[in-house]
Design brief:
Strand order of the largest sheet: 3-6-17-9
Strand content: 15-25%
Oligomer: single chain
Largest sheet: 4 strands, antiparallel
Order of helices and strands: HHHEEEEEEHHEEEHHEEEEEEEE
Length: 357
C-alpha cells in the first residue's frame, strides 16, 4: 500500500535506534544526521523536505550521472515552399547597386513568393461525399509576391488603431479580434497604411469600396486566391500536414471548449498556440474565419492569373474555419461568406501587403 506523502516524510525523519552507514551509492542521511540535538531546526526542515521529495519519486537518490554525448539530430529538409520563400526573400533583400536592399521585410509578416498552384477542392475531398462542391479545382498563378501577417489581427492590435474593439470577449489581448464586419476590416487596413505612411489601398464611400489593386503598396485584405495559396504552402492536401492530428493544427469545435466558464463554452484562443505552416503562418486553419477581398461567386473553369473574384455580389468571402465549426471546414479549400455588414463572434481578419519595387 502506498504511504501518503506526509506520512512518508515523517517516517523518513524519525530517529532510529541504529545508525545507517553512509554508502558510496547513496546520499541518504543517517539517523544521527537528523537527530534533533545535532542539527538546527532550519536544517532539519530542509532535510525532511529532501527526503519527502525522494519518497514522492519512489526511488532512492543516487549520485549525479554525467550525461552521455548525444549527437544533434540531422537538420529537417526544407519543403519546396520554404525553399522558394527563402530564395525570394534573398533576392528581394539583396542590395540594389550596392547601396541598400530593394525590400525591407515588415516585422510580424512573412513573405509569400509568387507562384502557381491548384486552387479548389478535388472531388475525392468533398466532405460529406456527394455534397455540392462550390470550389472546383483550377490552376491559378499569382504573378506577385506579397507579405502576409503571421497571425490573425489580435484584439490588442485592432484597439491601437480603431476607436473600439468589437470583440465580445475581453481580457484576451492576444486573441484574434472578432465581431469585425468586412467594412471595418478594410478600414483597419487603411488605418494601418496611414500609420506606416503608405498609400491606402481602399477608397471608402459609405458602403461602396474601391480597391486600388495588388500594385498598391499599403495594407489590404488578401484575395481569396492569395489566402488559399498561402494556406496550402505548396501542398495539395486538405491541410498542409495531411498526416497530423487536426488538433495540432487548428482550434475547432471539438477542442475549443473552456470548462472554467459556466456553462462551458466554445471560445477563441490566443494566436500562435498551434503549429505554423511551412510559410510560417499561424492559425490559417481554425480559431477564427478570416475575411478576404472577394465577393463570393463561381470559380472560373479555365486557368487564371491574379483573380479578384466577381465585381459584385451579396456575400464577401471568409476562409479557414473557426473554433465553432467542424474539422471539415478547417481546410485550405473550404469556402464561406456573409454579407459585408455582418458582425459575428467567429470571424476576424489577417492583413497582407504587396511587395513593390
Amino acid at each position: 500500500m502506498r504511504v501518503p506523502t506526509a506520512e512518508r516524510a515523517a517516517q523518513s525523519v524519525r530517529p532510529s535506534a541504529q545508525s545507517v552507514r553512509p554508502s558510496a551509492q547513496s546520499v541518504r542521511p543517517s539517523a544521527q544526521s537528523v537527530r534533533p540535538s545535532a542539527q538546527s531546526a532550519g536544517l532539519r526542515a530542509w532535510t525532511a523536505l529532501g527526503l519527502a521529495l525522494a519518497a514522492c519519486s519512489e526511488r532512492t537518490p543516487t549520485q549525479a550521472v554525467v550525461p552521455k554525448y548525444v549527437p544533434a539530430p540531422p537538420p529537417v529538409a526544407l519543403s519546396e515552399a520554404q525553399v522558394a520563400q527563402r530564395a525570394a526573400l534573398q533576392a528581394l533583400t539583396a542590395p540594389a547597386g550596392g547601396v541598400k536592399p530593394r525590400f525591407l521585410p515588415t516585422p510580424g509578416y512573412v513573405l509569400i513568393p509568387a507562384g502557381t498552384f491548384t486552387m479548389g477542392i478535388p472531388p475525392a475531398d468533398v466532405d460529406p461525399p456527394g455534397y455540392y462542391n462550390d470550389a472546383p479545382t483550377h490552376r491559378v498563378t499569382l504573378t506577385h509576391s506579397f507579405e502576409m501577417q503571421a497571425t490573425e489581427v489580435t484584439e490588442a492590435e485592432y484597439a491601437r488603431l480603431m476607436p473600439a474593439t468589437p470583440s465580445q470577449r475581453t481580457g484576451c489581448p492576444d486573441c484574434p479580434v472578432t465581431n469585425v464586419n468586412w467594412h471595418q476590416a478594410v478600414t483597419y487596413c487603411n488605418q494601418l497604411s496611414k500609420r506606416a505612411q503608405l498609400p491606402p489601398c481602399y477608397v471608402v464611400m459609405g458602403f461602396d469600396v474601391t480597391y486600388a489593386g495588388a500594385s498598391c503598396p499599403g495594407y489590404r485584405l488578401p484575395s481569396e486566391a492569395e489566402w488559399e495559396y498561402a494556406a496550402r504552402a505548396g501542398t495539395n492536401a486538405r491541410r498542409w500536414d495531411s498526416a497530423a492530428n487536426v488538433y495540432d493544427l487548428a482550434w475547432i469545435d471539438t477542442n475549443s471548449g473552456d470548462l472554467s466558464l459556466q456553462p462551458p463554452q466554445l471560445v477563441k484562443h490566443p494566436v500562435r498556440r498551434k503549429r505554423p505552416n511551412p510559410f510560417g503562418l499561424y492559425d490559417m486553419l481554425g480559431n477564427v474565419w478570416e475575411w478576404v477581398w472577394d465577393w463570393q461567386g463561381d470559380y472560373p473553369a479555365a486557368a487564371s492569373a491574379d483573380p479578384r473574384g466577381p465585381d459584385k455580389g451579396e456575400n464577401r468571402g471568409f476562409r479557414g474555419g473557426s473554433f465553432k465549426h467542424s474539422e471539415s471546414e478547417a481546410t485550405a479549400g473550404f469556402r464561406n461568406g456573409y454579407g459585408p455588414g455582418n458582425q459575428v463572434e467567429f470571424v476576424g481578419m489577417r492583413c497582407v501587403r504587396s511587395v513593390t519595387r
